[in-house]
Amino acid sequence: MKAVVTNQGQARAGAYSYAYVYLVDGAGVETPMTSMYVGDLAAGASATVTGTFTVPYLFNGSYVARVKADFTKQVAESDEPNNNKDSAPLLITKL
Questions:
Q1: Which of 30, 62, 65, 78 has its CA 20 to 30 A from that of 88?
Q2: Helix-strand-coil percent breakdown of the chain, rounded to 5?
Q3: Residue 25 contacts residue 65 (beta carbons within 8 Å)
Q4: Cα dihedral sign for 10, 34, 23, 88?
Q5: Over residues 28-44, mean pLDDT
């Protein structure tokens, strides 16, 4: 999994920044998969983060991967909803 995290604010994001990855089913249930360290981002800066996760055996059907930055709201900002990004739908088939 690869994601680009951009600090769209006017201040540094801080060195404690992580992006969290979830698999989300059609009912909106989020299952945490992994986290990726982003690091300190200056205002306007971006970082590409990568990580891996194993899909639980029982998962079957359509899901999206959701990445959440600043999940714990460590960074004060005016647009909190811009911290989440969903992938295109993923079809997971249980073997």
A1: 78
A2: 5, 40, 55
A3: no
A4: positive
A5: 91
